[in-house]
Specification:
Strand order of the largest sheet: 7-6-8-9
GO molecular function: sulfotransferase activity
Number of helices: 15
Family: Belongs to the sulfotransferase 1 family.
Number of domains: 1
Protein name: Sulfotransferase
Structural class: alpha/beta
CATH superfamily: P-loop containing nucleotide triphosphate hydrolases
GO biological process, one term: sulfation
Keywords: Transferase
Number of strands: 9
CATH architecture: 3-Layer(aba) Sandwich
Distance between the termini: 52 Å
CATH topology: Rossmann fold
Shape: globular
CATH class: Alpha Beta
Length: 330
Amino acid sequence: MFSYAFEFEFKFVSYEFQEMLESLPKERGWRTRHLYLFQGFWCQSKEIQAIMSFQKHFKPLQNDVVIATIPKSGTTWLKALTYTLLNRHRFDPVFSTTDHPLLTSNPHDLVPFLEYKLYANGDVPDLFGLASPRTFATHVPFGSLKDSIEKPGVKVVYLCRNPFDTFISSWHYTNSIKSESVNPVSLDEGFDMYCRGLIGFGPFWEHMLAYWKESLKRPDKVLFLRYEDLKQDIESNLKKLASFLAVPFTEEEERKGIVKAIVELCSFESLKKLEVNKAGQSIKNFENRHLFRKGEVSDWINYLSPPQAERLSALVDDKLGGTGLTFRYC
């Protein structure tokens, strides 16, 4: 058992953890003082602590579902859709107009993060009493997740957003929730960091590409969705998600309006106006109200200069060109 002796960035941590942390490459952080290069990706010290606990203790079960994203790619939306989809027989989205859990609980409470909630601070939760299918979420890159979910039946749903809008959303969000002891990150500085891979759980291109390749290799285990596709045709993509999770909609459900009801209940506009999403903290230190800004495609046009857009375009072409992974930017 570690002895907790001094405070480092967030809380008291062990000498062993501190020693390990100090051995890692580090750079200036966005909302904390530092980002550390851990297992090939950049993250904060508190995230490393949680990931280590998760990797050591998590035991996958046959029907587990894991939602994976890089931050600010539509995580909250996908959590709402997946939860409502999997629980539609318990909570009918057509008739549960006043008592549906989404009306009183933030999606992050209904589908907990592995690293931000369940294993936060190195905790080891008891997960065996959770209803099946257990549904979790993570920002962890696939390379650091795969060994923990190697069990027949476990399914991963990855939501990818175009890198331009992902950056703008991340920049707004991190400046909203950053520690008061950390100076705001300017747009120019944040953009340069982003292009160098210095973003939470980045580089973004490695995060996206690893899940993309796994979805091609094992399409029955990893579903790769695009944020822009969901915005353009949510009903078709919701049906795709339902089929992937082995809970397809019946013709009777479609006639009854279940698909449209889920779409409406989980829409950005519906979620944003709920009181539960205007106040409180579903993830420690993260105000729920900051989770809902615009949710638009092509908002980056309002922020990036032509040279910045050219730089990011060239970077995407260099890192992802020829892989088959493409994006829609407007």
